[in-house]
Design a protein that fits this description.
The complex is a heterodimer. Chain A contains 17 helices and three strands. Chain A is mainly alpha-helical. In chain A, a hairpin with a 2-residue loop joins strand 2 (about 110-120) and strand 3 (about 120-125). Chain B is of the alpha+beta class. Chain B folds into two domains: about 65-250, Alpha-Beta Complex (Penicillin-binding protein 2a (Domain 2)); about 255-590 and about 600-605, DD-peptidase/beta-lactamase superfamily (Beta-lactamase).
Chain lengths: ~375, ~625
Amino acid sequence: MSQSDFVRRMGSGGSAIYCGPSQWRRLHVDIPLLSLLLVLATAGLFVLYSASGQNIAYVHRQLVHFGVGLLVMLMVAQIPLRLLDRWAILPYLSGVLLLIAVLFFGIGAKGAQRWLEIGGFRFQPSEILKIAVPLMLASYLGKRAVPPQFKHVFFALVFILVPLVLVGMQPDLGTAILIGAAGFFALFLAGLPRRYLVLALLLAACLLPLMWFYLLYDYQRQRILTLFNPEADRLGAGWNIIQSTIAIGSGGVEGKGWTLGTQSQLDFLPEGHTDFIIAVLAEEFGLFGVMLLMALYLLIISRCVFIGLGAQSMFGRLLAGSIALTFFVYIFVNMGMVSGILPVVGVPLPLVSYGGTSIVTLMLGFGMLMAVSTERKRSV
Amino acid sequence: MNHDDRALKNPLMDYRLYVGRLLFAMVVVLLLSGGLFWRYYHLQVERHDAFVTLSDRNRVLVEPVPPPRGLIFDRNGVLLADNRPSFNLSIVVERVENLAVLLDELEKLVGITGADRDRFQKLLERRQRPYEPVPLRLNLSEREQGVLAVNEYRLEGVEVTVQLLRHYPLGAELSHVLGYVGRINDREIQQLDPVRYSGTLVVGKTGLENFYEDELLGEVGYQTVETNARGRVMRQLEREEPKPGKDLYLHLDSRLQRVAYESMGEQRGAVVAIDVASGGVLAMASTPGFDPNEFVTGISFESYNALLSSIDRPLFDRVLQGQYPPGSIVKPIYGLAALESGTITPAYRIYDPGFYQLKNYERKYRDWKKGGHGSNIYLSDAIIQSCDTFFYDVGVKMTIDVMSLYGTRFGFGHKTGLDMPSERAGIMPSRAWKREAKGLAWYPGDTVNTSIGQGFTLVTPMQMAVAAARLASRGEIRPPQLVRKNGRNPLPAGMIKASDRNWDYVHEAMQEVVHGQRGTAKVINKDLDYHIAGKTGTAQVVGIKQDEEYDRELVAERNRDHALFIAFAPVEQPQIAVSVLVENGEHGSSTAAPLARQIIDAYMALYPQSLSEEFDEPE
């Protein structure tokens, strides 16, 4: 392939993005996506500094998380898409096996068993599945007829449900939602016939009451009840919601100013630097801050969707679309629960909440998106 | 990869479908984002003022209101465990500028010990919410409250809070029964539900306080208060009252308990009295006791050490944790076993030369009476005069298996099921038990020792009282109970089957122990206007070697035998069953039996009519 050939192809895509310096192109980095992520990360570090009670150590450690995340993203971006497609089953299978291992050897706290410890290094196998499930489904459905036939839908559902049930048993409702969503998006984008969608909706309507009584743990039920009536449990789960809505509401349009939020600085807000960090942002930067953050998130999602639209193979399209939409689920669930319209489940605000595991997992996903975006270049 | 599947692929159709779906999803994403925006707009613009009020000018605090702990009453409504208000010095650390300076200042004003500081530090770490007052000094005197009030203006962050503290009006008498509450320690914090215990400082540590912790605790309430920017409470907004813990009503009669405890005097031992009809515990005392009130506010290191290191072991509950060889009090039980198993008939008699020898063995098993009880010793004589030789002989004839079976039925070797923590099971030896516990076969000599309640057998005073109650009720198996349940007495959990003739025989023999001319407990029958059935026992503390005399002068006081006595009365219609243990009291007849009579006399005076009626929960 000659250089001119390449440029013309890119040009016909009607996009200026591929005209970046050749160094970046050789690294398979999508410049717009990377820039958006860096802006988000930088903003997130400022919020974290304030949310951690102005503890610079948290910022330093979060910087390390981002460093590792970027490295992982770069490495994954280098993998040819065909290889990802061919070996998609590997991360999936190992993830499921590790989840089973968690059932037997897992460690955890407060009744939830989520962690594996190997040689002093702790990690959550359920995080792998957040990436492995969309990868596996994209690979499986990408090779099949579109829209998928019954047996393919059936197997796809099995691929989703096995890790979903294992994670649900830990129990980790937040991660289970993200895994289920990622799998569903892959199926949906592959053209799941509408009758299945209707059927699924009906089934869900019937199963919800059953789930309520048989599947959910007491504390999970409690959280959902708390949502409707936070005042009923003022000393327990309701406390978080009451304090976070006060923080958000008192922030107003312009906010109280950076590090000046009384709710967050006076320790009224539990988990202020992790899952509830949006409340700190809303208190200190107001509705403007929230809007800016949402705009940034929507830009990132749009960019990912754009990459998905331009992908060459069905595998690439499904993978990109699924990751992009799952990213939105993070945002929606987190912002919804902190503002009191969704039950509290453990879902962080992506790339802003403090925590290495979720950042590395998210960046790994973006690495795959970059691998998709450079697919054309390789495939020709 | 399946070849057919690929054949169906149509790239252009695929792509169109995908684009349609993806764009549809984006529309949903935008709609949901709009929903989020609307929610934040609602909170931050429409309800902004309300939230500013809550957050900026005034802070709303939720404070836990600990529930009052359930009270404990005796059977006649006498208060045994009470809650009394105590005034505590508490600190809101958020309002304090320099904690170290403040603590020094307070030390000068009201005195603060190192233990106070330690407790304060721990409670501070445990605290879940900001602006929660943390207690530093408990039980302020009126003078100290006055000193604090005068200096209030320069003690920012100091508050005097009222808190209910547990109080045990009867003190040491009931120390082992009620147990006590104490400050929640580090280990307990891990296990207790932080919400249920928010605001609660103590937890039941021993006795009923521990066993019924769940019922006694109650449900925490809360109050919402508005505070100013400095955290001082301005007004109360709303309050959800805590639900007080459930009160407990005991079978126990505090008057009998006092007789039981005080009759022991300086002696170490245990007294248990059980209502035969219900299995309810009327009295259970272990001496010496201790003052449980000391533990409520946190006992000082010195006092606790003194209790721990005392040779009399006051913290040790002899009734449930003391395990003693039962000695001769097993004789009515094994006598019944011998009759019921058909090993002997009432006509069986022996000659007692003062010792017993197993066939082909040299060793002499001696009777307590030097020279023996003579000829024509029947089972009734063996019970009345406590003849060991008779039971050696009959024990070997009926085998350990029969003795073990009956001993177990009368409650030996397993927990009685009393509603108290840390009860011990004792030992009812059997072949299987010895194989497991000692890894040894059962020897004939073991049977001989077991037949008079020595050897491996160990029972608690509670088990002895339960056995007495089962003898009294002719075999009704009722787990003893301290706390009264509503309604009538429940049916017995089981029956020890024996013929009326045999029950009559054993009851008559036990009555003769007290009322007969040769009875071992005849010292207590003076001026009795009702009938007591009983059995004395003596439990060896040190083994006596073959052919060695037991010389009380030479045996140190702590190595003397334990004195035991079980009894029930009135024989014709048994109502109360009693067991008495006096450590190192030597003879059941001289030291233990008179105590039992005191209890039974007191009972008969208090309850001239039968007590076996049902009890309804007092209103």
